[in-house]
């Protein structure tokens, strides 16, 4: 299976963006009214000294377009100077046109007068005129790296109060097409995207009218905005990475357009850990650009909206309010040094034999399903991704809606209530041809049509299910003690794995079965089958009778939990074990390959203290980036080490 790591630019000259979202500390969103070129120069110089060569800049819409047929020449001239400041420092910027939402507040041009952003033809035409005029003015400036139509326009357009009609996504897509056409009609050739945060149903499970699939043909890159609230540190550190994986749609580059932390929410030490983890984990998940939020703090603007009522928004900066670097900026600088030492523009993710299946019930609006269904798909698939990364598996995330890759050795179907009937037929065929197909039982989180929608479960997995109509088989124990009855991968007969038990009154249930053609690989504490295998053709189908991934996803601070060991065993059983592994779920390892054949291995600690691990290298040997042999890897708290793997 191919895994996306597409970059902007051309194959001969790939482009990697390491930048920052930028407002000057002199005014925040109102900076163009009080534009101070000396302060701007100072701010840009500090960023440049720390490896940042790009900004995402914002044309505050009410100021730049005070009337429907007039742009403010003074504001335009100040942006002219802003571009020249970038040119002088060898930097570039991405102008953002429709800045109506910013930092917890919506800002309307006075002449909008309640018009619908997408449906009002006159208002859309005025937006297109504005975009066309600005793009025409700056299209030839060497410091313009790209264009963004908006900043988080799903919030500005207030989709929650509008409601989502059947035509809303068509209006949104038509709006985006109109504005992107305006950019191109102006003669601008730089990359363009929407600035919507990639918050479509494909990444969130919630329909806000923005469809990533429909926008993908129009844009040049995906730009996720990720600010997750979590209850598990590892899920938090891998949250943005999982979003990047979900955006492997159409082979377009993925640029982390926004991420960051307010130091009102966390210590600087933990903010630095978050930056380090997000930067490196998203790189390993296919991201090829990073633009954190944001460049500076705004203490001097405490009396100005939006900071007066959202004071935490003042402290997302990479520098403090005096322009002094914070620990997050030092992490960005170290990250850019890794990119340089590995020649990242020419690194790519190797293809994989391991597929994590994302049910189409995440994004398809099938009739008579419930809102809880896509939320559950997202939750369990994210947790399965965490477990796969803990097992060091180079997992590829494949959407059922696109069809599954036909050449994988291992298919993971985690805690899945529903796939379509044709997909189950396809999975059985993959097992016949030699693949391992793993699925764990799950009835969903609500009572409507509660049960696993798996056609021919008995025949598929070689069991006879003992479930009763309309009833569940509750898991009464506080933990699942899975005892292996035979060797399975690296797990030996007699070994016990202990899993957390959790869920709703509906979902905390197991599948009672009697084996027929299946063999029992592991039992629970009551001697009931917990893991079974049915050999078919030259492959196998593996059934887990407990919703392991759902239960783990429902428990705070649970990771690493033992599902990673089961996944590692499944990879071994399918002949898909990675070349480099660490027998410790607290450390994630992953490999990137250079176009010249060199290989680099990342080791990323998920542990809140220093630790040392000894990797298993199945082929070749490890060295540090200076070429010295490396047999063990010492990692700082939530630390990252990058090594080289040589096959000589």
The parts where pLDDT drops under 50 for at least 5 residues are none
**Rg of Cα set:** 26 Å
> Tally of extended strands?
33
Overall mean pLDDT stands at: 96
Count the DSSP helices: 17
Sheet having the most strands: 9 strands, mixed
- Roughly what percent helix? 25-40%
> How far is the N terminus from the C terminus?
27 Å
List keywords for this structure.
alpha/beta, single chain, 7-stranded parallel beta sheet, 17 helices, 648 residues, 9-stranded mixed beta sheet
Structure, explained:
The longest helix has 19 residues, at 372-390. The protein has 648 residues and is an alpha/beta fold. Strand 3, helix 1 (37-49) and strand 4 (54-60) form a beta-alpha-beta unit. The strands form nine sheets. A nine-stranded mixed β-sheet has the order 16-15-17-18-25-24-23-20-21, sandwiched between helices. Helix 13 crosses helix 17 (563-573).
Task: Set out the fold topology.
Layout: E1 8-9, E2 14-15, E3 17-21, H1 37-49, E4 54-60, H2 61-64, H3 73-89, E5 92-99, E6 101-102, E7 105-106, H4 121-138, E8 147-150, H5 153-156, H6 159-162, H7 168-185, E9 192-193, H8 201-204, H9 212-215, E10 225-226, H10 233-246, E11 254-256, E12 258-259, H11 268-284, E13 287-290, H12 327-341, E14 347-348, E15 354-358, H13 372-390, E16 396-399, E17 410-413, H14 421-433, E18 436-440, H15 457-461, E19 463-465, E20 479-484, E21 496-500, E22 513-515, E23 519-523, E24 529-536, E25 539-544, H16 548-553, H17 563-573, E26 580-581, E27 587-594, E28 599-605, E29 611-613, E30 616-617, E31 621-623, E32 633-635, E33 640-646
Parallel strand pairs: 3-4, 3-13, 4-5, 5-8, 8-9, 10-12, 11-13, 15-16, 15-17, 17-18, 18-25
Antiparallel strand pairs: 1-2, 6-7, 14-27, 19-22, 20-21, 20-23, 23-24, 24-25, 26-30, 27-28, 28-33, 29-32, 31-33
Helix pairs in contact: 1-3, 4-7, 10-11, 10-13, 11-12, 13-17
């Amino acid at each position: 299976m191919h895994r996306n790591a597409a970059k902007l630019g051309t194959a001969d000259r790939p482009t990697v963006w390491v930048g920052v979202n930028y407002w000057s500390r002199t005014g925040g969103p109102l900076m163009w009214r009080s534009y101070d070129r000396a302060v701007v120069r100072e701010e840009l110089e500090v960023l440049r000294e720390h490896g940042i060569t790009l900004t995402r800049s914002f044309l505050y819409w009410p100021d730049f377009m005070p009337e429907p047929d007039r742009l403010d020449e003074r504001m335009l001239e100040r942006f002219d100077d802003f571009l020249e400041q970038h040119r002088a420092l060898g930097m570039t910027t991405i102008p953002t046109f429709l800045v109506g939402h910013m930092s917890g507040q919506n800002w309307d041009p006075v002449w909008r007068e309640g018009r619908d952003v997408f449906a009002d033809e006159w208002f859309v035409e005025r937006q297109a005129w504005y975009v066309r005029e600005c793009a025409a003015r700056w299209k030839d400036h060497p410091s313009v790296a790209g264009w963004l139509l908006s900043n988080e326009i799903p919030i500005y357009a207030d989709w929650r109060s509008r409601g989502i009609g059947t035509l809303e996504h068509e209006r949104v897509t038509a709006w985006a097409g109109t504005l992107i056409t305006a950019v191109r009609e102006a003669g601008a050739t730089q990359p363009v995207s929407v600035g919507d945060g990639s918050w479509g149903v494909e990444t969130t499970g919630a329909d806000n009218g923005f469809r990533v699939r429909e926008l993908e043909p129009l844009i040049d890159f995906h730009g996720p905005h990720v600010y997750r609230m979590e209850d598990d540190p590892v899920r938090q550190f891998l949250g943005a990475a999982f979003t990047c994986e979900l955006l492997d749609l159409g082979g377009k580059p993925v640029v982390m357009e926004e991420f960051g932390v307010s130091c009102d929410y966390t210590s600087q030490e933990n903010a630095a850990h978050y930056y380090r983890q997000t930067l490196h984990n998203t790189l390993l998940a296919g991201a090829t650009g990073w633009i954190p939020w944001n460049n500076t703090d705004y203490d001097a603007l405490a009396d100005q909206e939006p900071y007066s009522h959202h004071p935490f928004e003042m402290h997302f900066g990479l520098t403090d309010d005096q322009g002094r670097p914070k620990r997050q900026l030092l992490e960005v600088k170290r990250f850019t040094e890794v990119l340089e030492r590995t020649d990242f523009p020419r690194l790519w993710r190797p293809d994989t034999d391991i597929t994590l299946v994302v049910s189409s019930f995440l994004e398809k609006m099938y009739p008579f399903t419930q809102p809880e269904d896509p939320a559950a798909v997202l939750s369990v698939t994210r947790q399965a991704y965490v477990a796969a990364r803990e097992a060091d598996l180079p997992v590829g995330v494949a959407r059922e809606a696109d069809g599954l890759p036909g050449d994988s050795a291992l298919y993971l179907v985690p805690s899945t209530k529903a796939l379509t009937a044709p997909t189950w037929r396809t999975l059985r065929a993959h097992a016949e041809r030699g693949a391992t197909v793993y699925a764990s039982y799950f009835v969903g989180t609500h009572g409507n049509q509660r049960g696993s929608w798996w056609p021919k479960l008995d025949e598929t997995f070689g069991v006879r299910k003992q479930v009763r109509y309309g009833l569940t088989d509750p898991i009464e124990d506080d933990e699942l003690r899975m005892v292996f009855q035979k060797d399975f991968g690296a797990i030996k007969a007699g070994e016990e794995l202990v899993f957390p038990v959790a869920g709703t009154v509906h979902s905390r249930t197991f599948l009672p079965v009697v084996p027929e053609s299946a063999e029992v690989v592991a039992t629970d504490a009551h001697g009931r089958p917990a893991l079974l295998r049915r050999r078919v053709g030259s492959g196998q189908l593996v059934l887990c009778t407990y919703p392991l991934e759902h239960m783990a996803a429902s428990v705070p601070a649970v990771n690493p939990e033992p599902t990673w060991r089961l996944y590692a065993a499944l990879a071994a059983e399918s002949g898909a074990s990675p070349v480099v592994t660490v027998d410790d779920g607290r450390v994630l390892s992953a490999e990137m390959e250079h176009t010249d054949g060199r290989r680099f291995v990342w080791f990323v600690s998920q542990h809140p203290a220093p630790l040392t691990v000894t990797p298993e290298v199945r082929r070749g040997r490890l060295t540090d980036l200076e070429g010295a042999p490396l047999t063990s890897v010492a990692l700082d708290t939530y630390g990252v080490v990058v090594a080289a793997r040589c096959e000589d």
